[in-house]
Amino acid sequence: MKTIDVVAAIIEQQGKILLARRPPEGDQPGLWEFPGGKVEANETQPAALQRELREELAIDARIGGYVASHRREVTGRMIHLHAWHVVAFRGALTALCHSALRWCTPHEALTMDLAPADVPLLEAFIRARDARPAD
């Protein structure tokens, strides 16, 4: 089985995270996900995520810390998904590849129809976030 490395952005602003809805055509239509995409040959994960966010959302993101990884079989392929935290970006968010964008709290995101591979990443983000000291 082929393994594909994929990066995902947990974009956070003012206590909310950004979710993107998959388009009606293609894999997992209508599910909400963290934006991102495939890591190309000779590309680091942060570089891949910066490129993908330009292509999908028309933003220039500053990639922060690594959050978590998760493996899952999807349509006959093993997807190795790596989440990275994004706390700053330049540009106006534009859904170039998704049918909708939505800001919500991490706990609200757990109640949404998420792509299954993103759920463990969200749970890891919430655990890490809840473990941070208060400001």
Automatic annotation (TrEMBL):
Protein family per UniProt: Belongs to the Nudix hydrolase family.
CDD domains cross-referenced by the UniProt entry: NUDIX_MutT_NudA_like
Alphabetized PANTHER family for the sequence: 8-OXO-DGTP DIPHOSPHATASE, CTP PYROPHOSPHOHYDROLASE
NCBIfam families xref list: PRK10546.1 (NF007834)
Domain named Nudix hydrolase: residues: 1-127
Cofactor requirements of the protein: Mg(2+)
Keywords from the named record: Hydrolase, Magnesium
Domain of life: Bacteria
Protein name per the record: Pyrimidine (Deoxy)nucleoside triphosphate diphosphatase
